[in-house]
Amino acid sequence: MFDALSARLEKVGQSLRSRGRLSDADLDEALAEVRSALLEADVELSVVRAFIEAVRTRVAGENVAQSLTPGQHVIKAVHDQLIEVLGGSPLKITYAAKPPTVILLAGLQGAGKTTTAGKLANWFKSQGRQPYLVGTDLQRPAAVEQLRVLGSQIGVGVFSEASDPVTVARKGVEEATRLGRDVVIIDTAGRLSIDAALMAEVRFIAGAVQPDYTFLVIDAVTGQDAVHTARAFHDTLALSGIIVTKLDYDARGGAVLSARGVVGRPVVFASTGEKMGDFDLFHPDRMASRILGMGDILSLIEQAERTMDADVVADSAGRMLSGQFTLDDFMAQLAQVRKMGSLGGLMKLMPGMNKEMRDAAKNVDDSQLDRIEAIVRSMTPRERRDPSIIDGSRRTRIAKGCGRTVNDVNQLLKQFDQMRKMMKTLGKGGMPGMPGMPGGSGKLAQMAGKVAAARGGELPAGFEALGAGLQAGARPGPASSGPKGKKKKGGRVTPPKTR
Amino acid sequence: MPEILVTEVAPIPTILDAPPAHPFTVPVSATTAAPATESEAPNLEQRLSSARGIFDRVRSIGQSGSLTEAQLEVIEEVLLRSDVGVATTTALLEELKTNGAPNGVAEAIRASLEASFVADRVVRREASEGRVPVWLFVGVNGVGKTTTIGKLAWRAMQDGASVVLAAGDTFRAAAADQLALWAERTGADIVRAAEGADPGSVVHDALGRAEARHADLVLADTAGRRANSTNLLDELAKIRRVADRAPGEVVETFMVLDATTGQNALSQAREFLAAASVTGIVLTKLDGTARGGIVVAIERELGIPVKFVGIGERAEDLIAFDPAVFVRSLLS
User: Fold this and answer.
1) Are B141 and A110 within 8 A, CB to CB?
2) What is the ipTM of this complex?
3) pTM value?
4) Could you tell me if B332 and B42 are in contact, meaning their C-beta atoms sit under 8 angstroms apart?
5) Distance (Å, whole) CA B86 – CA B83
6) Does B132-278 carry CATH code 3.40.50.2000?
7) Which structural domain range is residue A343 located in?
8) Contact A274/B at CB under 8 A
9) Structural domain spans, chain B
10) Angle between helix A327-339 and A463-473 (nearest 10)
């Protein structure tokens, strides 16, 4: 989401990187760039001003650390300030001593409240809670119906009735208590912040149910108006936090900074896609790193930890590093990777991704993995253990078995072979400098290593395999159609050498 | 900020009572100020001016012939805060510097802004002989596509046209239900399918229905989609192809845009223009505090005209866009 902003700041960083000392003029120039970038990213003007001044103070008040160039120093100041504005440490949800914990969602029309209500319920469910949804949006045609559909998709009960919003909210909480649900999420009617009647309505609802948390749902594509919205809702409701939606858009999402800056409450959750599961806690520190183009490696690792079956991965990772990686292991790892979600989504989290790569990631075709799986499944167990026995006639048979061409089979085997060699090199502790191997996984491994070091050396097993799996599966959309014997690399994503 | 809230809130109830007086059929172009437009002008201006305090500052900086740095700075701030965007603001400031302000600063900025709106704004409702005219609606999630269709259906029905709605948003839960309610309210016909059905087939069926019943217009809804996914844009292009195949003919493709949207609106417009040949913009939710300044950038850079603006919740609050009124109200 902050793609363009990070590109801009990267540019600032580059021009400064080439200089030895930072003069006042340099600083002004750098900060002017930061200002433009923030404005283009839809950060509200007064928030931008405050931000720039804070960065200036930060830079002026600190001694330039010996290890940093002056340029890095500015970048670090921007980064630190971003973290501060975006919320410091994330707000942790504590549950009411006497359940249910009541959560009220408010926001403008079209920000995505109803969908967010569903996603939030789904998230609580994944935390082992028993959520309950209450639909008080009796205004928008079919809003309650939409909530019911979402509720049935995720298996969460929905309460609403055709009375008035305050009554519905109160009865909804009572019903949740009766049913023994421990989290109640109340969806409210969308409103324009200037609409006094609707603002009064949401205030009455809040008064009636006394929510433990009141979240403002704000859309990442919002422009300068984000501050009006945030302020009006905060004045009416005393918000406890912000939920940002549509982070999967290519909007730069400055509204997040604006709203955060004005309300002074943290962004708690972020919605990043159309599926119910595309929703998670918002991580300000990670987001700040992402803004600066450092990738979201921590998110990736956490996602890997959460979904990967440690035994399976550790098992094959060990063999992988000793060079005995088989196609069976490959399949097992592929399955693990796929559990983490769509490849496109994963790739976006990886560091060192420039715009081209990110664009490619948006269009990564998961069905490519289906094809790989089909090919491997058409092999005999012995072939999977020892691909070197696969001769011409076996190739033909495999191709027939999976409905692909011999070329596809060749390509897969070739890629697998390269991957195995690379893994072996990695296992010996060498850096991957293999000719023809994309730098991406090397970089990933490098990053992963750094992160592992930072985390006391524990790196989730199989993390390298993730990079490898992505390489094998990821191709830019347009290049993925049909067999391609002619193209020598078979459309594999080759990350351009950045910087 | 509470004071501002209060001043913003106050005028709304009286405006809501104002009667609508705008016949649907009058095509409004940039140059001709039709009587109908005049009659609604105070309405739009009133609503827009509620949040325009800042523009007073431009006026207050006087009538001088050339512009000072301080004046330019104020203008820059005004434009940036209206979501006009850095690039367009810089360009407008350059124009101001070049042209000076012989008739005062406010007049100069008004002229510059108005010159940004040059596109042809005629709303097309006629298809070729034997074809059914289709209006296709595209846009990102939550901008008000379905509501816009409901309101435009109402206008067309008021005008005596027979309308078929195609519930092409088969993705969002209950989107078809929402459109069905509008059909019920307005008396329009509706063709819908189960959730998850192919939107192209819904549009195709609607065309068949419209042809059989000799309907005058088909309004086709589509699911909200982000504009940075090739797959979703391809799907949209396909829906458009289906709608444009006999007996249908797409005479307008409207991109519905939320006035609170920031700079991303430009990339939305660019992508939807490429994928679905957008012919006009419907700017919704202009009755909030947002100024919708990004349409200035869209018209300047892409030449896509704004054709309708939404200034309230009622069906009659969706009105034809008049750039002169829009700019004047920005500066009043």
Assistant:
1) yes
2) 0.77
3) 0.68
4) no
5) 9
6) no
7) 299-480
8) yes
9) 132-278
10) 90
